[in-house]
Design brief:
Layout lengths: L4 H8 L29 E6 L2 E6 L14 H16 L4 E5 L16 H16 L5 E5 L4 H5 L10 E3 L3 H11 L3 H8 L9 E4 L7 E2 L9 H13 L3 E6 L5 E7 L2 H4 L11 H14 L3 E2 L3 H4 L6 H7 L12 H8 L5 H16 L10 E4 L6 E7 L6 E7 L5 E3 L12 E3 L5 E2 L6 E3 L4 E5 L3
Helix pairs in contact: 5-7, 5-9, 9-13
């Protein structure tokens, strides 16, 4: 941070911080540098040693560290060790793709960046504690998956296309695009995992949906989110046009609207969206404000002057406790539903992060996957109705092994392999397993 003690000492020319920040030269060829922002890359600052130009990949209040200086790397490793000693077990490398800079290159995904991630992975693996290294790289799929390395970089990577694709599915009532994308996803290598999520402290990124969701579908999403009180952040394209960068809205409010307006299934739709990430290969992650069914905070947007503040509400603890203690409140209903499913999920070997996954070809209103435990003893057919329709499916669609007892873990209902159609109520999810 430009407000931090390190940068203050850099400005004063104090060692060792006078060498901690990456300095650029306006005369260098910086035309290839990949950036997620439209602000100038270099920021001119007046230091005790004269005028310098510091590198700011994101914004001028976030000045980039100079990892070409070994002292910077060693200091960061010491900080990581301090956090591990304090009990931290998941280390998130935020925007790590931009770590290494080299004028005349795109300055993203450079070999030196991967080498430093490999070093951090090696140190994590040799730590006496179990530490998970998580990379946050909001980039196209192939580039994102490169941070698994050869099982020698990240333990887990963010699954960025999921938030817009799942939101679209439950808003539109069709899993067509989610199914198409998931069918083409490779399994993570053993010991590595996708981090599956639907919401975060940032907005719902729309760039990962490019090439997956047609512009007309994205436009309908934007219409539904804004009707629910959400906001849209734009980015400037090279030709000067603007395109949606992210949707800023609490997830609970984002699913209040479908493409056809509001209905009576708000809670069911929200729980369906969260159950999908519980079912998929990888590790499910839940933003605290999704767990708490937090509504949009427009007051925070006005106060802080930023769209992302809409989904960063600060609860007054006594007020939150009161909400959670009221069985009829949104907060209590969502928390109870989520907690019940998470407790049940934790008992299923077929939901191991690396358990086999196969995407099922079903009615477009259903998103279905088959999971099988690593020891092949448990199978789960995880089926999610993303529509407001009642959907019927023949049990023959699931290839359930005859002679075994199949049960829907979520409802407790026995499923007969040669019986009548299996009925899915609006937004109902089923985990049909042979190990009930």
């Amino acid at each position: 941070s430009s407000q931090g003690a390190w940068f203050h000492d850099y400005m004063q020319g104090r060692e060792p911080y006078d060498r901690f920040f990456f300095e650029g030269n306006p005369a260098d060829d910086l035309s290839q540098v990949v950036r997620p922002r439209t602000t100038p890359l270099l920021r001119e600052v007046e230091t005790r040693e004269g005028v310098k130009h510091v590198w700011c990949t994101f914004s001028h209040d976030q000045v980039d560290l100079d990892f070409t200086n070994p002292e910077v790397l060693l200091e960061m490793l010491r900080i990581i060790r301090m956090h591990i000693d304090g009990g931290v077990r998941i280390l998130r490398l935020d925007a790590v793709a931009f770590l290494w800079k080299e004028p005349g290159t795109p300055c993203i995904h450079l070999p030196q960046t991967h080498a430093i991630v490999q070093l951090m992975r090696l140190l994590c693996d040799y730590a006496t504690e179990t530490v998970v290294l998580l990379t946050e790289t909001n980039v196209p799929r192939t580039e994102n998956l490169s941070y698994f390395g050869n099982r020698n970089e990240a333990h887990a990577v963010y699954n960025f296309p999921l938030p817009p694709l799942i939101l679209h599915a439950v808003q539109s009532g069709t899993a067509k695009y989610l199914h198409r994308w998931q069918s083409a996803m490779p399994p993570a290598q053993l010991g590595c995992a996708y981090l599956n999520f639907t919401a975060s402290h940032d907005g719902i990124g729309m760039r990962p949906a490019e090439g997956v969701l047609p512009p007309t579908e994205q436009a309908r999403m934007i219409e539904a989110v804004t009707a629910a009180g959400g906001l849209v952040s734009m980015r400037t394209l090279p030709d000067g046009r603007e395109a949606p960068y992210e949707l800023n809205c609490s997830l609970f409010d984002a699913v209040r609207q479908t493409f056809h307006g509001e209905d009576a299934y708000h809670h069911e739709r929200f729980l369906c969206s969260q159950t999908i990430v519980m079912s998929m290969e990888g590790i499910p992650a839940f933003y605290i404000h999704a767990l708490l069914a937090t509504p949009n905070d427009h007051e925070a947007v006005a106060r802080r002057g930023m769209n992302r503040a809409i989904n960063r509400h600060r609860w007054h603890y006594p007020d939150l406790l009161e909400k959670l203690g009221d069985p009829g409140s949104d907060q209590a209903r969502v928390m109870a539903g989520m907690a019940e499913r998470l407790r049940l999920r934790a008992k299923q070997k077929a939901f191991h992060p690396n358990a086999t996954q196969f995407t099922l070809a079903l009615d477009e209103r259903l998103f279905g996957i088959w999971r099988q435990s690593l020891d092949r003893h448990q199978s789960i057919f995880a089926i999610h109705n993303v529509s407001a329709d009642e959907v019927r499916v023949s049990p023959y669609a699931f290839n359930m092994i005859e002679g075994e007892r199949w049960v829907d873990l979520l409802s407790g209902e026995d499923i007969v392999t040669e019986g009548d159609d299996i009925v899915f109520a609006p937004y109902q999810c089923r985990w049909i397993s042979n190990r009930g």
